[in-house]
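Propose amino acids for all 205 sites.
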C-alpha cells in the first residue's frame, strides 16, 4: 500500500503510487507506531531534489526521530502547498526564490534569511483560508494554482492544467476576466510575479 505522503496543491496528504519530481519535509510527523499523524512540526517547509547525493544519504520512512519524506508532482505543487526550495540540495533555486520573494515583497534580500522566509510563509499558509481571496486570472502569474470547477488547476502559459498525482490532464483556455480562488499562498504569488519560474511537469503528465 502506498504511504499517505503525496502532497496536494491544498497542502494536504494523500496516498498515491506516483513519485513526482521533488521530495520535501516539514519535520518528523510520525506517531509512536510510525504513522503520519501531524501535518507539520517544523516551520521550515522545503522541497528537495530526488537526485542521489554523493554522501550516500538514504531516505528513511516510518521512523520516529527522522523527518517524514513528502512527495510532490512538481515544484508548482510544492509552492502551492507552501514549500520553498531547500538551501542545501537546491541552492540555485533557493537563491532565485529568495531574490524573487524579496522583490515581490519589496524588502531587502539581506533581510530574508531562511528562518525569516519560513516565518513569512508560515503565516500565509496556516490557516489555508488565508489564500481564499477571489481574483481575476489575469492578475495571477504562471505557476499559480487556482481552484477551478472545484478542482486544483495550474495556470501556465495562459491555460489551466488540471492536476492529479500522476500528472496534468488536457489544458483548457482561460478567460482572463474569470474569477478564481488562488491556492498558492500570497507571498509565493508575489515571488512568481517577480519572475520565479518553478520546475513543472507540464507536457509530461
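Proposal:
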Amino acid at each position: 500500500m502506498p504511504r499517505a505522503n503525496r502532497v496536494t496543491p491544498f497542502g494536504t496528504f494523500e496516498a498515491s503510487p506516483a513519485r513526482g519530481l521533488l521530495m520535501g519535509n516539514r519535520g518528523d510527523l510520525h506517531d509512536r507506531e510510525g504513522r503520519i499523524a501531524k501535518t507539520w512540526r517544523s516551520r521550515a517547509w522545503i522541497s528537495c531534489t530526488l537526485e542521489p547525493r554523493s554522501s550516500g544519504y538514504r531516505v528513511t520512512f516510518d521512523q520516529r526521530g527522522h523527518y517524514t519524506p513528502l512527495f510532490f508532482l512538481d515544484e508548482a505543487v510544492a509552492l502551492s502547498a507552501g514549500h520553498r526550495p531547500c538551501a542545501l540540495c537546491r541552492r540555485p533555486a533557493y537563491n532565485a526564490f529568495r531574490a524573487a520573494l524579496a522583490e515581490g515583497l519589496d524588502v531587502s534580500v539581506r533581510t530574508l534569511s531562511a528562518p525569516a522566509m519560513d516565518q513569512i510563509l508560515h503565516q500565509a499558509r496556516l490557516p489555508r483560508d488565508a489564500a481564499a481571496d477571489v481574483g481575476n486570472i489575469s492578475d495571477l502569474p504562471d505557476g499559480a494554482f487556482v481552484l477551478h470547477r472545484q478542482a486544483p488547476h495550474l495556470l501556465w502559459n495562459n491555460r489551466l492544467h488540471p492536476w492529479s498525482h500522476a500528472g496534468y490532464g488536457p489544458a483548457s483556455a482561460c478567460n482572463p476576466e474569470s474569477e478564481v480562488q488562488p491556492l498558492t499562498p500570497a507571498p509565493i504569488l508575489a515571488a512568481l510575479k517577480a519572475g520565479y519560474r518553478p520546475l513543472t511537469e507540464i507536457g509530461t503528465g
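The first strand starts at residue 6 and ends at 7. DSSP finds four helices and 13 strands in the chain.
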